Amino acid sequence: MYKRPNDINKRQRQVTLTILIITTFLIFQYFTRSKASTMASSSSPILKRTTPPLDTKVRKVLNTDACLHVPFLDSMSTFWHFGGTDVQVRNTESIKLVRSGDAIGSYGRVISNGVGDNVIDDFEVRYEFKWSDGVGEGVAFVIAAENNFMKMSDWRSSYGKRQYVLNSGGVDPDNMELMGFPRNLPGLAVVIDTFHENTRNEMEKYQPYLDIFVNVNPMRDHYDLASDGFISTSKRVNKNHIKLKPFSNGIVQLRIIYMESVNFLKVDIQYDNDGRWIELFQTEEDLEIPKNRYSSQRYIGVGSLIGESSGTFELLRIETNEFHTNDEGTGKLSSEQAELFLSEQYGIKKVNAMSRHSTFVTYILWVWKWMLLFVILALMYLTSVYVRVSKKHLTQLRRRRRRGKSVGLLPT
Question: Which parts of the chain span the membrane according to its record (predicted)?
Fold first, then answer.
């Protein structure tokens, strides 16, 4: 059946109009849903729950094997290494790692020995200490992946020492630059530097500041004492020095909160035992603290060093709590439970790991949205081109047919 050109042109216009209407409707629906989901996510709590609420009753379980308190000798003889130039343990008072008047290079340190339970994943460690009679070079609070450098008496020969260096990945047992610990000790080191050689300003020399370092590879990473940590090859996770209040004879507490479930780190301080925690640092990105590669343990320690300035550093207490999903201290946390626990227990308002893990997905969705819009616009453009070309073609066809009719009417 023959269709006139006008009928064909009308049908194509109808099809084009229908396609444009459907495309506009789809674009409107897509962006409406996208905006609604964005508004829902912005007004939702820290965790978006697409499933029923989790059992968020995370238990804070005291790890007595990783605690150190009076009477000190009971736990030190079983669960801790300690040593140094002249460490003084007063069983019912404190552990003096260094003392005012000690020679330059004097040091003291204490670190868990791994005999007890040192497989700690999600945990909080609190250190209680005080300085008196001035301050020394500084102090390092470590969560280390290695502790066998403390067994000096076991190395009967240079061969034994070389074997230890190989087995530990390169730890230098003779070095004490990390405030009494080897400068390339793998793990986390929260360093409070109390005396700065690289300044002529007398006030700045005694301005304490804190830096947080992570050593992963002992062959590559190390803390540089001579530059006050400035040219260390270790990863310094805080961008700028964190300034602290000058230390007096008051009792100070430092707490380190680490959640392996979400690679989250938080460091707080409390001055004069006033009960008020001041946040010093909170991670903005994933931060993984190394474990011992053989035992999966992390060893808790404190070390102090005497430099050009001297003082008495006393360790009063170490308390370690782990976070588990049962009272026996064995249930591991999921990332969702860890995030929610951080929000409820410590008031962490910013999602860290979950937002980081979803960043890539969000980016992909964003790219996909604009790619889809581009494809739709391209289809609309191609449709319009098709309509224009078809219209031009039909116009030419009508002209040829008119010419053919005109030719047929000529006289014979």
Answer: 12-31, 363-389
